[in-house]
Write a structure and sequence with these properties.
With 180 residues, the protein is of the alpha+beta class. The protein has four helices and nine strands. Belongs to the TBP family.
Length: 180
């Protein structure tokens, strides 16, 4: 396993309440801090502080949850939202929840020669005039890692911690083979 350390910065989840039509005006009028302007956006923007998360809530019973740093934190925020919707009289049950994306910062604790990496791996994209990071994409996964010359990285597209750890380990081993 690699010595690289990572920190989850954001988890994006979809939330689906079955067979319900949500009255967005009622929600925005009754949830403190909720904002709804249908001429600008077709959903309610709502932020919770404990646990910390933000929601986009749609009339269809669908919602997006962003901003939590753990799946457990997101689940608690969703549970709290569900209780608030029930308190407002909506017939909502426990929703279906699916993690869509985890955004992670990684410290590889070493510098990278991005040009050398790009020359050696066809799945690495590097164009420093457009973007200062090397973009690592590989087949059969949605996980992408952005590598910066100072040894930092950003991992996106993972839905589970195992995918993050596998990608970080793979990058570490790949980079190590270039310098051997």
């Amino acid at each position: 396993m690699t010595d690289a350390e990572y920190e989850v910065n954001n988890i994006v989840l979809t939330v689906s309440y079955e067979d319900v039509e949500l009255d967005l005006e009622k929600i925005s009028s009754n949830l403190e801090g909720a904002r709804y302007d249908p001429e600008v956006f077709p959903g309610v923007a709502y932020r919770t502080s404990k646990p910390k998360a933000s929601f986009l809530i749609f009339a269809s019973g669908e919602a997006n949850c962003v901003g939590a740093k753990t799946v457990e934190g997101a689940e608690k925020a969703i549970e709290k939202l569900t209780e608030q919707l029930q308190d407002l009289g909506f017939d909502v049950e426990e929703p279906e929840i699916e993690v869509q994306n985890m955004v992670v910062s990684v410290d590889f604790d070493r510098r990278f020669d991005l040009e050398e990496i790009a020359r050696n791996y066809h799945y690495a994209e590097y164009n420093p005039e457009v973007f200062p990071a090397l973009v690592f994409r590989w087949e059969d996964t949605n996980v992408v890692i952005l590598l910066f010359v100072e040894g930092e990285g950003v991992c996106v597209g993972a839905k589970k911690k195992e995918e993050i750890e596998k990608a970080i380990e793979w990058i570490s081993e790949t980079i190590e083979s270039i310098n051997s």
